[in-house]
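ok trying this again, last paste got cut off
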Amino acid sequence: MKVQSSAILIKLLTISFFIFLLSISKGYSKSFQDESKHQLGDRLLSTLLANEAHSHALTDAIASLSKSDDIIYLNDMQIKTTIELYKNGFLEAISDSKYKRLLSLEERSPSKRIEILQTLFILFPSSTQAIISYLIKNNLYDKETLFSIFFKSKPDLSVASENTTEPDIMRIGWGGGGAFSSIVEYKNEVYASSDVTGVWKYYGDSWQPFVKGLTNYNITGLLVHNDTLLAVTKKQVLELINEVMWSPVGLKLNTYRSTTLQLFSTSQAGTTCFAALEAQLGCIDISGDVTKKPLSIDKLKGVYFDESPDYIYGYNGTNLYRINLLDGSHRLEHTFKENILRIARISGNANAFVFTTKGVYDLNSHVPINADLANKNIVNVFIDNRLDNKNFIALGSTWNVSLYELIVEPFGLSLGSKVSVNYGTSLPYRKWRKSITKPIGMPSAVKGSIWFSDYWGIYQHDRKSGNFYEKSYNASNFVGTDIHIDNEKLYIASMDNGLVSMELNQPNQFINIFPRTSGDWLLAGHSWSVETNDEAVFATLSPWNLPQDYLITADKNNNFINVQRIDSSQSRNDSGSFWGQSYSRKISISENIYVYKDGDNGGLYKLSPSLDENIEQSTSEKVFSTNHNRVYRSLIKTDDFIVTYHIDDEEMLYFHDVDNGSLIKTVKAPSGFWAFNLEYIDGSLYLLGSLEKAVIYKFNERDSTFTEIVNEPSSSAFLSMKQAPDHSLTIAGAVSWGGESNGKVLLNTSQNNGWIDMTCLMANESGVVDIVYTDDSRFVYLLQQVGSIIRIKTSILKYYQGC
């Protein structure tokens, strides 16, 4: 995999690639006309020479110029770096093309070198090729690393700021997906992991994706081993190379958050071992050597080194084992009454504690510790073993947790004060949901204070106030499922967070349409699909706490109007559905509204749109059904039919009457093909899905045959394909199941003869699940499977040559 990746990167780093990349990165400059005189770095240098040389004046001058530029915006870190480069003459040297000054970078730390280079790439875009060539020629960096640094400096990986004006590529939204599994400090920087979205790096008021090189975005946890940052995915362990790229260390293990409770432990000798959901004990010693010992224990949910480096404790369920590192043999130390959650040593106590769901025990003697827990279940503990430490305990249940100080007494443990959480005000769902879930992983001290993460966010303890403050920002768990544009608004259907809208001219300013307040809690849950007609906005809603699905109706000013029940199911669990849970994942609108719910009790439902705020009875009617109704998102209206595709043994396209939903005809699809979505473009029906690889077929209505349009062997399935309203380009998005980084985004324009790869313009390689264009075809919005929405100016795509 490394060889293939390197070959691609070397190809991309040709001169033509950089000339092209810079030409599309208008966040660097408007054009190449006399650019040597108009680069931001040159303009800044002229301005700084005219200002007083104290930092305050320089900061104001740089901020003023960078914000007045119609594209560029320098963040605080880049402004600080620019001042430093100006004061030591570095800025002037690069402006005068004296690249020998770059040799002094060898004297800087790796992180500082990257910081300087990223700033230089922004300040001097037309000099980038010369800078890179000089660095490679003098062996300061290899091409692969330079490519990563260059791409990290690009504005397309940044959240849009109020101070920027329409960059070519903009990341809109939030982290998107899964639960946050760990927070760690590494070389004075803070990193977070998610079990769906990979790794994030903290920049004080935002989090940025940090996923280059990740083979899987399902991260069970991060840790620092022997001054190296490691990321443990659900399948293997990776290390951070040169602080820019992840690379496998050669240790493959099966792990998963919430089932791997205490992911790792490090011995006094510097060996780190991992708990795995398999009969293996994987370890990395202080020299970086990897070992993997077979165990006669099926799996371990946690591990803990006590004083001996030759033995490690492991646990699963109620059983505590002592494992010999030399040969993997073990003995059963003790069986507790309740499941073991954590093993941890707290400063001020001689022995480590075993925390179960109901109590606390001494690790060595297994004797219960006197701990007054107010008859509540333990869900996690936060340990800070500094001298002036404060420890905390989380009590409650998975979805409802309270935090307390945990105090070590001479003869046991006691609860201190209850600790409050101050929630972020910028997050859409915090208007109606202010609570924390079960904290995940092994929360500990990060940069002088306790940080922890849960299913929904990231939090930091403030020692002055004694409270925790939410630090989720744009990395909050907010998973988009479907997007739609109407009335100059972007509508977003999302898992867990219902229906949200955003004015197109106000990126990242979100409004909750439903749920609105905590009073809507009963119907809170997943929204899978959103569509509009001339009068209103419609979205499906699948509540957490109810088995039936609902249709939300709102006006185009973000006002909720009513809700209609779609079906009468008595259980969300359904063996005939996808992944055992039955949902309504797609809406299609004609004169009526059609919704398909999968599962044995699902089917095609027809509803009448209503703007009545006091609607008393649902208009829903089931008009068609098969045995298992295995329709994912393959529901669409053509000129003549409502069409569905069923992923079952029949492998059929079903054509329904557009007025009443009755079945008109069926057509056999290619054998073995699974269609996950349907698109109707220029009067033709397209089937998007999988046949041992991601593939798209065009349906030829005249003779009921199918023609393959495009396939992508590295991906699992195509989920979206959309053509721009002006017909200038078509984009198709494929994903890879299981969190793999093999998603693809392909582009077809009137300027080329086939599909080309544009995946490198995305924030990550998870692929795209939905695509929409503005009516004027000026922008395209792409909803990534992992992470956020990417907005791209279509003008940079029309002559794009590919990654």
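PB: full thing came through this time. The chain has a mean pLDDT of 86.
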